[in-house]
Amino acid sequence: MAEVKDIIKEGNLVYKKSKVLTDKIMHYCPGCSHGVVHKILAEVIEELNIQEDTIGVSPVGCSVLAYNYLHIDWQQAAHGRAPAVATAVARLLPNKRVFAYQGDGDLASIGTAEIIHACNRGENIVVIFINNGIYGMTGGQMAPTTLEGMPTSTSPYGRDIAMTGHPLKITELIAQLPAVNFVTRQAVHTPAAVRKCKKALQKAFENIGEKKGTQFIEVVSTCNSGWKLSPVKSNEWMVENMFPVYPMGDIKG
Q: Does the predicted TM-score (pTM) go above 0.85?
């Protein structure tokens, strides 16, 4: 009988973990989209051979702990300020591939000014925007992207448009800015969706390597703990409710 060491050889491997991922066990809730995005982001960085040249910027929220899981250089930013910090890093180190990794409460709320102006300037950075329609880390409060009628800890009877306005389609707003090169909206709830999202990430990192300006990737995601649903039901709810408001596909570029 063959020993394990004889079976696990490079030519026999169907899949192996990216060397860009650290050995730390991810802390995210079961079903959370963050872990999947981390995985494909690590794969893109490894496949493009840019691990030594990539710098991530993570602010406050669930995304803040991304630096635990990707073996690259990182800089933490204050809540909402990742685009401003990424701007400084990219300008000081123009040969590096700089990206900001942000949630919707961070990017579309306290960080609205930073993201709009960074994109308006066309800073040569990738922005990865995780949109689950809720503040995931801090207690499940209503976010700018929360859907109409969607219950949260601060809108227990559902979001009231007359009181709090419409869900903010920040990605469509950013796509109108002339200096933004590539804008897309993806998801990671199925194998096919994961492949499309990975392809979008690869394009974005290739584009900043060619100095094409701002690359903006929204990933519509689940927050099963905040939504009070199982991982399976969260995916179903996302498809039925989030996708009609935040449709998939490339918007620009």
A: yes
